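INPUT
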Amino acid sequence: MMYRMKTSRRSRLAVLGGSLLLALAAAPGLATRAGAQTPAPVSGGTMTIINGSDITSWDPAVTSGTFPGGPMDVLDSVYGFLVYIDTEGKVTGGMAESLTSTDAVNWTLKLRKGVTFSDGSAYDADAVKFNWDRAADPATLAPTQGWVSSWNKGISVVDPLTLTVKLPTANANFAAQVAELAPFIASPAALKAAEKKTDIKPVGAGAFVLQTWNQGVGMTLTRNPKYWDQPRPYLETLKFAVIPETNSRIATVVQGGATMMAGYMFQFGNNATAPGVGTVKVPMRGIYRAYFNQVKGPFTDVRAREAFYLAIDRARLMQALTQTGGYKPPKSFFGEASPWFDPAYALPAADPKKAQELFNALKADGKPFDIKVVTYTNSDLKRLGAYVQQVLSAYDNVKATLVEVEQANHPTRCKTQLDFDVCFEGGVVVSNGAEPVISNLMSSKGSFNWGQYKSDAMDAALAEANSTVDPAGIKAAYAKVQKLVATEYPFYIFGEETRFLLVRNNTGGVVPSNGGILQKQFLFVCPDVCVK
Amino acid sequence: MASDHPYLKAAARRLAAGVPVFLVVTFAATALSSLAPGSAAQLILGENATPEQIASLNAQYGYNLPVIERYLLWLGKLVRGDLGLTLYSQQPVAGLLFDRAAVTFEIAFLAMGLSLLVGVPLAMVTASRPGGAIDKALLAVTSVMLSIPTFVTVVVLGFLFAIVLRWLPATGWVRFAEDPLGNLKSAALPVLCLSVHQAASFYRVSRAEFVSVLQEDYVLVARAKGLPTHTIMLRHAFRAAMPQVLTVMGLSMTYLLGGSFIVESYFAVPGIGWTVLSAVNSHDFPVMQAILSLTVVIFVVVFMLVDLGYALIDPRVEVA
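OUTPUT
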């Protein structure tokens, strides 16, 4: 079986025809995926995307999640992704034509002809190998070093446009993992020239070229005239502005001071219907989660984790977080629309009586349910934390202490220091495609596994799902995963949500990928209203 | 000799007294930054980095050195005029400081100017008829203005002028050189928010001072001579009330710089308040230290100018 990563013909058509019309003809399909009503793309213009924080490095080896507005969303402008994951969870061509395999062990990366970095050097197989070898080098300090070093010895450069990777074991999700964990290729010359990580200059072959970067304020990029997919990018100028305060970001878009911001409908409120403004759904299901500390404290006992699920009505918890109603507690890691969803295994619904019995049993066994709940200091998370504390305080033999930390220090507190019993995350993690998110969250070596849940059965089930190419086999393996989720409670899944973009109503070409990042080469300014 | 001039000697003495303050504040900042959770390495490498990788990068940047060593290294560079580069974008800190301070000073001076323009003339009007209806009304209004914290003012005025009326930009900053009108528009909301408290403060102090001065004998003589009220106010009362207003102006500068942290953050104005908050959150030590140093210098200079200003305005005051 072939894992398909289709090559787009849009560029060739556009170049061959020399006509804008041909390029435009390809756009409606993209527009449909984006959920926006995009008319014919128009070249020129400026867009400003507001993010809540600035990037801290242009190092292509530092990858940290593909959520909209995150660092990888910014780096995509300059580097582009080798391959993307579309909203259906399928891997598609990006800077590379394809990344395919017939046996899940031997993978072939086909690059595009004539692509060059903005310094004029070739974007070829040697450049890809250099970047991946660099990521595998412990001295680079890439967070994905462990993963890349597990396969980079199997890289072979066949010719300038072809590179093969022989994996040590079968991995059907390798292409998706590359799209999430190692998608950026920078000019080797620029990387070699940098003495320190922060010295790295952003020299890529992506849609835009960095012009100015004012740290903590924003940056300006202009279109890369040598971009491989002409006439894209359509925008002449792309700006990123940094505005940490959510309400200020919203007000700026509403007023026309910027083009778009990512968030959730509950944050936008009535602003979503303000004049000149529209919303675009990023059609990827994400889950809200919290981590149970499984190294020390009450949650090392599975009964405590079960009791936590039983004690709190998760629909009401979501209501406390979002101040809107109508939520249904997720039944599993996978959404009910997922091909991997198995209704046989569901997370428990709230049952206060049973929760109290478990709390009493824990107390009787000398394991009092005395927990430290860590959240961060934005108003939504404060409400959520207060609700958790309030609900738990109604039970006997239960004590919950709320600790609010600055968002920037949240990973340090929870992941690095393990100084929590239950640690809530404020944003969703996208779980429409299984990997690499599912393994990152639940395998014993997963980088999102902040609570350090360890289960040989889970590791085996995840490995089984990765190693098979048979859909029935994958489904069977994920059924085992869901059974473990519903019986071992690796982490706390309390809500599901999709992100939205609050945009000016003339924002065209919104094409979300991976965890919600936008493919900026498709963005264009509509001559008229094109988003409701 | 110029150095014998009493004003210069007084200025030099006050600046010298500021040196220990400078050293204590900047050292404390270094020490506190070491105590803060997280690190620059954690931010650079992201939340997926291992503790070993974070420790390794911290070592590369010297963030694992003892506090005193880090401080002395920084101080040594400062003495050589080297403020370093911003940690992430590698911009020269000196240039960044100049750009951001210019924004904050523009807002602070505009806010002070607006507050003085509103507060002092109103005080002159009501002081001439203390206890009148306007006086009572303004006392009530200014009580409200003084009791509203800046973090409430920014939300209310931002909502009103940016969202409801759409007269002013909700966020951002336009440089004066690029677009003078745009610059004033982008400064308007921050200036208004800072002026709410300050105008009330200037009004209260000036009114009390004018009321007091108007009861002095020389004012009564002036009245007896038949001078009109506005002449008495401008020629006699105004100068006599100035020392007190000057003191408030000095304090006002500290309030405006403090308020800039909230106002700049809310309206996304890239001044030193916004920058230092961002630097603290992002563990950008060179930027944080540079801004703290600048802030200490500003405070020392402002209080020195206030002291010297007394002597210039009031001949009875001698500089020492």
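end of record. The mean pLDDT of chain B is 86.
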